[in-house]
Amino acid sequence: MTEKDLLIGQLRSNKINRKEDKNTRLSKEKLRGLQYDYEQLRNQLNISIHAGDGEKTFTYGEASYMAMSHSDLKVKTNAFKSLNKTLEKQRERFAAIYGQMAEIRLNEYRVKDIHFFEHSLEQNGISKHSLEAMWAAVDECSAELSEFLLVKAEEANKEKLTWHEAMTSTQDVHLEFSVSDAVDAISKSLERIDGKIPEFIHHVITNGWVDLEQRKEKPPGGFCAPFLSEGESRISLSFDNSLESARRLSHELGHAWHFKQMRAFPSLHFSDETFEMTAAETASILFETALIDYVIENTKDNRTKKAILGWKIERQLNYLMSIRGAFLFEKSFYELSKTENIDAAKMEQLSLQCQKKAFGGALSEYEPYVWIKYGQFYQADVPFYNYPYTFGFLLSAGLLEKSKIDEDFDGKFLKFLGETGTLPLEQLVKKHFAIDLTESDFWIRPLKNMIKDIDQYKELPVHSK
């Protein structure tokens, strides 16, 4: 089971009667069948790509990787165009699957007499007012955040970047970490927040909780599996001595630290409480952000510092722009689906409009098939599998900033993590940090720090010093 599957399994609600519970089970079965149909359709695609040594046929997964991550720009561009051409031919089939999933959910919500977005907010332990306050803060800072995309376009001698160019990192980060180096940097970056964290990391590494070996059968990314009754976790990722590997290790150690504080629960498969996605990533993103900031602060070479800073900003803008575009699309789709049938052409148009708003109009072209490529749209168990990541990112960034000025932060943070699931996230934040998430002020602060990072990026020379 992957970390994503593990966390999805926790998002449950008990506020339904027996009749509705039966209806919910039937709906879930239908939704899982449609998710399977989506995955089968996607995985059966064959994409012909000219990869430098002639045209070859690739699977959807291979083509997606080539389109976003291939080292050869020409191959990457060819893969992107070929993939989109293939998706265009199948767009009506994908649209039919997504439309059926929305129809099932909307029918279920009508039975429960709730708004289609109410259930998602409840699952994530937040109110509509908190989410609106977060997006209002993002809107307020949108023009300054979009400035980074224009800077990157200028570096590429273009007026504006395309979606594909913006989403494929161009940062050349030449920085190697041994496992020992990574563990040392992670520990030092977090000791100021809580002196117990480095001790915990040492315990995790020396007691064999972490598998860092590179093996072909390992899935991409990493995951952390908790064993709460034993107070332990197991982490798996392929460590390749890159900064990205160090970041992933820090991220998974954050999950392990979070799970360590949740010993009060016998397992994550509880029914009376919920493990909200908004809370699930708090410690993990805080850990990785602290590491990246530490590395930037301690990097003396200007070219390397600029590359790492740009890499950091690109990752953060993904939370604020790409994920927001997905959220706006899904919310708009459900709203329109209450009164009309939406075909593939309308979905493309809607997706492009939402991306343009999310990116502040800073791109020259947008991606018409995001709604096919992002598998999160087709998750059977969790609608709106998008905004919780933005919420969790900004919450962790805000808490990291608070840790710098609050002498008692360590104790508050431990209690906050330990009480996950006992109260809705919004109430836990107010209880332990006296922070009102319905006020935009909290959300503005981490965004202003991002703008400072963008200003620093613009000021840093490209040459080494």
Task: Set down the secondary structure blueprint.
Layout: H1 3-8, H2 18-43, E1 47-50, E2 55-58, H3 60-69, H4 73-112, H5 118-123, H6 128-155, E3 161-162, H7 163-167, H8 179-190, H9 196-206, E4 210-211, E5 222-227, E6 232-237, H10 243-260, H11 277-280, H12 282-297, H13 302-337, H14 344-358, E7 363-365, H15 370-373, H16 387-403, H17 409-418, H18 425-433, H19 440-459
Helix pairs in contact: 2-4, 3-4, 6-19, 8-9, 8-10, 8-12, 10-12, 12-13, 12-16, 13-14, 13-16, 13-19, 16-19, 17-18
Cofactor: Zn(2+)
Family: Belongs to the peptidase M3 family.
Keywords: Hydrolase, Metal-binding, Metalloprotease, Protease, Zinc
Fold and architecture overview:
InterPro entries: OligoPept_F_C (IPR042088), Pept_M3A_M3B_dom (IPR001567), Peptidase_M32_Taq (IPR001333). Its cofactor is Zn(2+). This is Peptidase M3A/M3B catalytic domain-containing protein. Belongs to the peptidase M3 family. With 465 residues, the chain is mainly alpha-helical. The protein has a domain at 125-174 and 297-459: Neurolysin, domain 3, CATH 1.10.1370.20. The chain is built from 19 helices and seven strands. The chain has helices at 3-8, 18-43, 60-69, 73-112, 118-123, 128-155, 163-167, 179-190, 196-206, 243-260, 277-280, 282-297, 302-337, 344-358, 370-373, 387-403, 409-418, 425-433, 440-459, and strands at 47-50, 55-58, 161-162, 210-211, 222-227, 232-237, 363-365. A three-stranded mixed sheet has the order 4-6-5. Strands 1-2 form a two-stranded antiparallel ribbon. The protein has a two-stranded parallel sheet with strand order 3-7. Strand 5 and strand 6 form a beta hairpin. The chain is globular, with a radius of gyration of 22 Å. It starts with a helix and ends in a 6-residue tail after the last helix. The model is unreliable at 6-19 and 266-273 (pLDDT under 50).
